Amino acid sequence: MKVSDILRVKGSTLYTTSPDRPLAEALNLMAEMDIGSLVVMDHGHLVGMLTFREVISAVVANGGSVGTTLVRKVMDAAPLTCSPDTEMDEVRRMMLQRHARYMPVMEGLTLMGVISFYDVAKAVVDAQDFENRMLKAYIRDWPVEPGDSPAA
Asked: pLDDT of 74-99, one tens digit each?
């Protein structure tokens, strides 16, 4: 399974912000849209990622307030990225190593979407459920060979 499979199911809605936007405005957008991250774009290029991890660190460092802080000051300026062709096992390894909950998906310089650890876990569980159903159906429909005694 590849990242493109997740994006196909998830859809193409993207939420971005500018590095020079006030953090308070970015937080309002995140709360309004019920999302845990924003991709930080500047002149059409990925320059960072803003997640609740960075926000919480900034609030604690600023005595419980965001004040006039800009997104640029708190964003992850070197976010982990992948491509649509990246295999799901590799994505899981990458996310676990960096403790990343969100990962922008890039095709060259073009932002294709964002996948979350939840998206990855859901895709794995869905694939396992499908395989489980297929195996159960296969076993249930196992052909009886001539001379075999029927199962009791």
From this structure: 999 999 999 999 999 999 999 999 99
